[in-house]
Amino acid sequence: MMTDLDIFRTDTRAWLAANCPPEMREPVRSEKDATWGGRKPDFQPGQKEWMDAMASRGWTVPDWPKAYGGGGLSPAETKILREELAAIKARNPLNSFGISMLGPALLKYGTEEQKLEHLPKIARGEIRWCQGYSEPNAGSDLASLATSAEDKGDYYLINGQKVWTSYADKADWIFCLVRTDKTNKQGGISFVLFDMASEGVSTKPILLISGYSPFCETFFDDVKVPKANRVHDENKGWDVAKYLLGHEREMISGMGLASTGRNPLIDGAIATVGLDHDGKLADPLLRASIALFEVRAKAFGMMSERFIDELKAGRAHPAQPSMMKYYGTELNKSRHELMMAAGGSDSLEWESERSSSGAAPRAWLRTKANSIEGGTSEVQLNIIAKRILDLPSA
Amino acid sequence: MPLYLNDEQTMLRDTTRDFVAEHAPVSHMRALRDAKDATGFSRDLWKSFAEMGFTGILIGENDGGLGLGHVEAGVVLEEIGRNLSPSPFLSTAVAAVEALKGTALAGRWFPGIISGDTVAALAIDEAAKHRGTVAMKAERSGNGFRLSGKKQFVTHGHIADLIIVAARTAGSADDEQGITLFAVDKGAANLTSEAERLADSSLAARLTFDGVEVDADAVIGEVDAGSDPLNRLLRAGRTGASAELLGVGGGAMDLTVNYLKERKQFGVTIGSFQALQHRAAHLYSEMEVARAAVLKAAQLLDEGDEKADAAVSVAKAMTALATTLSVQEGVQMHGGIGMTDEYDIGFYMKRARVLAEMFGDANFHADRLAIAAGY
Ligand SMILES: Cc1cc2nc3c(=O)[nH]c(=O)nc-3n(C[C@H](O)[C@H](O)[C@H](O)COP(=O)(O)OP(=O)(O)OC[C@H]3O[C@@H](n4cnc5c(N)ncnc54)[C@H](O)[C@@H]3O)c2cc1C
What global pTM score does this model have? Predict the structure, then answer.
């Protein structure tokens, strides 16, 4: 007998087959293959149709309420949707800091007006967001941030500088931490949202070791932000920031490793190194490294499943995202290290067409940031030691 | 099925945790070792496992067991591991039961296993490293078979009432087909056993079968088709050993983290040193990942999912890696006291090494996964 979930799966499969463009079933090769949307979108063929089709069903954010542009799906339905997407190797319809970071924070801390204003636009990919947390003197020690917000009655006047702001030059809006009380470190921070087109906002891209410049220095010079744009109470922004960081860590931990299918690393290694007469990779040490990596990667995939199940059931330790972020990012770095080793000199080509403009080495270099962005590995280990293992402070 | 223990399984864990910690804590194992006990475990303890119903955990309710699954067996094994409790639970109540399940021999052996009177041993390894090789011969003789060959690393082999033996009725040593599994009784003529004490103070036997005669009804399942029950035995044994390893690694980690909170040097507790905090946090992460892998393997086995086999290899390899780290860091972070016989952490190191080797080590299972993936 067909259960409701079986019917949902059959319908979903049919709908995806009819609506996912063929270009969106190709493996992601470079940063260009990600769809970001926003006011000034830069679409490749198939990207817009796929994003719009998914958004029309609320499936860019399947488990958000329908009232905010979501799909209103249950956890079981969301899981089925994910599995069916994976089965046709569909690309992510929309990459978005709005979905993975701001959205969950607004759902928890936003007013009804704020939710209705921002969440549907996030779901449809109409507004692209960036994250204004880090400052030149506030990285790991984020709470020492200095960007000031002066109370001017019904608005704040914001002055200061942010750094490492990913895609600040392409984003439409920013969610930003500002200081509303200089006398209280963590208790003097507020969380505000504003338009990057506001007067007094400027950005300057920073070139990375990968040759891309996805992030910027961001400057605020007398920027006026209405107080209605503050999320949660004044001086309580740290709570929102931490909650959001939990989601950011979760997202980063899953990057690159979420796929349950065959690891492309294996086929890459077979293609370059070849198999010997026993059908084993002809470089036995590389084979051993890949095999032991695969043990950890597969086990981490199971850990991710457990983590999601525990989160849904409200059983996960609140500091567990730190463990996921730490383990997942270190693993992803080692995967790319192995991919470079497997690729040999082919994986060194930087600009050639054959190498998709150096997709492999650029991706390898990009992963080095996984254990820095969203809180470094060392910071995650500090959190695990203190909050989970309950080890004493120095 | 969500990847965490449900309410009944959590209750079982709590009951088992109390029971094992009370009746078979590490001091129990130490006492057996100090007494140079020749059995390797306490028969009384095994009887009380039976009273708790644990011995029949995987046996169906119709046959008088609890009718539970590998998740539940793993829950018990984790506590056994945490307390380093010597017991024939893994070989008897898990691996042997799985091999016999659904065969004509279940009725013959299950009652004794359930009552705690029967101990089973597994004669499957023929070399110092676990491999799929079966060279031992079983030749037709009368209405039965004649077994000749050698097995080693047979835990409880010197005292077991039932020895499950993989032998070859056709083909050559490395073939997968042509294996037959036998249930050999204690005291069979021409079977000699030489028990050796291992590093962890458990006992394992080298068995020599010098033309051991068994009846045709000693065959588990079908002649030449022994790879079926053997694979069932191996999957269950590997999953169970992973769960026990998880307990060993978790127990060692708990000892270590507690020590970090107590021991003072330079006027502060050593747990406040960041170099140690980071290593402890890394260890925690490895153990959590291993825990997920063990539960996943057990759930897939219980569901009869075809992906179970790969998950079992992931679990065995991952727990071996994580637990090895746990015991190594354990001894190191305890400093000098970690090297003393008087302190327990060293026992964890020894037990982890034995379990890591049992049913295939991390390299063996990583290799298995690689072959299955075609490289
Ligand atoms: C690709 C990328 C994208 C990013 N995107 C954004 C963004 O969109 N928005 C945003 O706001 N920020 C962003 N960041 C910034 C990121 O959050 C910071 O780089 C990060 O928090 C580290 O801060 P830092 O660079 O100042 O390093 P520092 O804090 O100066 O750290 C330097 C080193 O010291 C170590 N260290 C520092 N404190 C401790 C401690 N207590 N214990 C042990 N070790 C310690 C660190 O682990 C690190 O190894 C991004 C960074 C990268 C690399």
Answer: 0.94
